[in-house]
Amino acid sequence: MDLDKYDIVVIGSGPAGFATAVRAVQLGAKVAIIEKSFIGGTCLNCGCLPTKFLWQALKLKQRIQKSYEYGFKVNSEPIIFSDILAKKDRNIANLRKGMRTILSSYNVDIIEGVASFRDKNNLIVSNNEGNNILEIFANKIVIASGTSPSVMKGFAFEGNKIINSTDALNLKEIPKNMLVVGGGAIGIEMATIFSGFGCYVTLAENENCLLPNEDREVSEEVKRNLIKQGVDVLVSCFDALNNIDKYEKVLIVIGRMPNNDLKLERAGIKTIGKGFLETNEFCQTNVSNIYAVGDIAGKSLLAYTAQNEGAIAAENAVKMNSISIDNSVIPQVVFSMPQSSSVKVSNFLKCRDVIYGKFPFTANSRAFIEKERSGFVKCAVDKANKKPLAFWIVGAHSDELINFASQIIKSDINKISRESVFHPSFSESLFNAYEDAFDKCVDLAKKI
Q: Which parts of the chain register pLDDT below 50?
């Protein structure tokens, strides 16, 4: 086999690997990226983007159905779900093509195959049949191999009745009924989408609430909205899989497991927990020339933090560990209907003397105009220095509002001012919730 040599080789082309490759070339490195499936990884092909496409299609369906509220008379045709899926696939293919174009513009060598280590500097690339087709030498290696859906013991995914999130996104028609096991973000999003398109969904979570790590008011609001949409929500449920015969599909979404089948031991790379790769603040593993970013590092299984880690790892691989990761303020979003989101300082649970404010979208004039009055903004504030510590939002556009909220918290300001937000806007509700923490909100009735 020919031995190709690179400054940096990246394993995986999801958000983390893609960002690593591009930034490394921008810094002058010769780079190759190895991908065993599709460019874009889970996020683009079977995660964030296809899920949001289907959610957006559902949102459009609901808007059409409610257009009479604005005086329109619309006769909507019956929905053909396979047509929506075909459109989804075309959009994903175009985005994938765009990513490949960007990599090519930077002269990143795209190598298709399965990567494994020979040692800390040499990688073997095999085809799907397991035959070695290439050997690569790299001064630095960045692992961005991602994760896969976790398997529940005794219920292996077979792609027909018992399915994972990837299978669900490729169903050609809406099933009559479906059991969704797992009340985290993915389970809620899947329940929302399939219920909205006519499937009778049962959502089961073994904790005593949905989104167990979220604020309880938020999880209860999300639960109420799901029930209003026709989802049968079961919490503290440990026996949901005892009656799977009554469901056409059983979707299990109980977390993600690392794609670490790379012969890591040959390079001496350490793993922690459930097999994630141990990294320091520079995204560096215990082997000095090998970095790990994104889901495989297990710090934050989010596409945008993965992309940030990828860019940082590239900087550190080229410039000898010059930048540390800062995950102190990370927004989280769940595409329920309406969306829910949150952001808080990393040490929030240790904060003392915290006061709270809340502003309902029923009191927001823009929400009234858009007929999106469900939900609220909740704000936590340090009583002594008046600094915002956290925001929780359930409601329309909360996925965009949370970015504004994140910047407010990260800027470390001790005041949000009225003139900094446009009227009428949803973002006013961030200010109003903050003001309510001090009983100063002029857009709410006097508290009794």
A: 1
d(CA 335, CA 356): 24
DSSP 298-350: -S---HHHHHHHHHHHHHHHHHTS------SB--EEE--SS-EEEEEBTTGGG
Q: Nearest to residue 139, comparing CAs of 260, 275, 28, 295?
A: 28
Q: What does the pLDDT read at residue 1?
A: 44
pLDDT of residue 328: 86
Sheet holding 332-334, edge to edge: 332-334, 340-344, 388-394, 376-382, 354-360
Q: What angle do CA 415, 416, 420 make, to 5 degrees?
A: 140
Residue 432 CA, chain-centre distance (Å), reads: 28
Question: What pTM did the predictor assign?
Answer: 0.94
Angstrom distance (rounded) from CA 141 to CA 137: 9
CB 377 within 8 A of CB 392: yes
Cα separations in angstroms, 186 against 50, 58, 233: 12, 16, 15
Give tens-digit pLDDT for 198-246: 999 999 999 999 999 999 999 999 999 999 999 999 999 999 999 899 9
Domains and CATH numbers, the chain: 3-148+257-319 (3.50.50.60), 162-252 (3.50.50.60), 332-436 (3.30.390.30)
Do 315 and 23 contact (CB within 8 A), yes or no? yes
Question: Integer distance in angstroms from the first to the last C-alpha of the chain?
Answer: 79
Amino acid at 260: N
DSSP string, 29-43: --EEEEESS-TTHHH
User: What is the phi-psi region of residue 321: left when phi exceeds 0, alpha when psi lies from -120 to 50, beta otherwise?
Assistant: left
